[in-house]
Amino acid sequence: MFAERGSWVIFASIFVALFIVAIPVPVSWRGFVPDWSLLVLFYWVLALPGRVGVLLACVVGVLTDLLDGSPVGATAVGSVLAVLVILVSYQRIRQFDGLKQSLVMGLLISLVHLIEQRLETFLGWQHVGTDFLLPAATSLLFWVPVRNCLRSLRRYYEVQ
Hints:
Blueprint: H1 7-22, H2 36-47, H3 54-68, H4 74-95, H5 98-122, H6 134-156
Helix pairs in contact: 1-2, 1-3, 2-4, 2-6, 3-4, 4-5, 5-6
């Protein structure tokens, strides 16, 4: 029972991030919207690697695909690979300061979007340019505020 403490906070924060993803945004702004679901997922994997892992990454990726209208599973594959990278090196990433963590998260979100774009190209969707990487750049800027907000929630509700 003690190991289950605060699970609702994890799921509620992921639900809020998915809700934010579902908010309609003008097409001209889409490149500047951070990838909230991945930021929240990456925080929980980094903070609680024993509780949040590959299965939740797959579920969040599929739900993000359903909300975005992209082929189901494209984001899931990328998010699973990014979560595996975090799980392998979470002790090292935790030791980084905010700037280095932001850069790592930006690179991981770029990896997710690159894999998603390659899978969509394989399925016949046409992509021109590197505009699909813009959300990674804005996510990089929002990593520290998201991390600090979720850290304070984790400490307040004693999520372990």
